[in-house]
Every structure is written in structure tokens, then in C-alpha cells.
Design brief:
Layout: E1 23-24, E2 30-31, E3 36-37, E4 43-44, E5 74-75, E6 81-82
Antiparallel strand pairs: 1-2, 3-4, 5-6
Length: 90
């Protein structure tokens, strides 16, 4: 299978254990669509990642790290944790 360590099904080219992080599709050759990440691209980027012009949060397709930073009050890498008391900003 492309982008996977498993051999693919001979009849369909599909990957028996799913795609590696960052890829999707039957043969695991399609990168994650915007706003998605992880194995088979089933995880959503944090809603607190800074979004693109289409208002879709931007994150790394492999691990969900927010590429454009976080909305105010949240911390990298995945903008899923609130800033500690007494701190502020991005």
C-alpha cells in the first residue's frame, strides 16, 4: 500500500489496516483534505487552530499540529489546551 507498511489487497489495491497518518482513499494515495489529520484522515483539526481564508482550521495532516498558530487563549501544538492562569495571547 502506498504510504503504509502493509501489503495491499491484490484485487482492489485497498489497504487492510487503513492508511498511514496524513493519507486517505482506498489505495492511501490521497492526502488529507483541509481540516483533517491522522490515520485515514478521520480526526478534525482543533477548532482553535487559526483558520484559512475558507474558515477551515489549518493543521499538519500527520499529527494535527496547528500550522498557523492558535486562536487567542490556546496553546500549541494542537491548540487544545487553554493558556495557564495569568498568561495570555497565542
Amino acid at each position: 500500500c502506498a504510504n503504509s507498511s502493509d501489503p495491499c489487497f491484490v484485487s482492489t489495491g485497498g489497504c487492510p489496516s487503513g492508511c498511514a497518518a496524513g493519507y486517505r482513499g482506498e489505495s492511501c494515495t490521497q492526502p488529507c483534505q483541509s481540516g483533517k489529520y491522522g490515520k485515514d484522515c478521520i480526526s478534525n483539526c482543533s477548532e482553535f487552530c487559526v483558520a484559512d481564508v475558507n474558515r477551515i482550521p489549518v493543521c499538519a495532516s500527520i499529527n494535527g499540529t496547528c500550522l498557523n498558530g492558535c486562536e487567542d487563549g490556546y496553546m500549541l501544538p494542537q491548540c487544545d489546551k487553554i493558556c495557564p492562569a495569568g498568561t495570555y495571547g497565542k
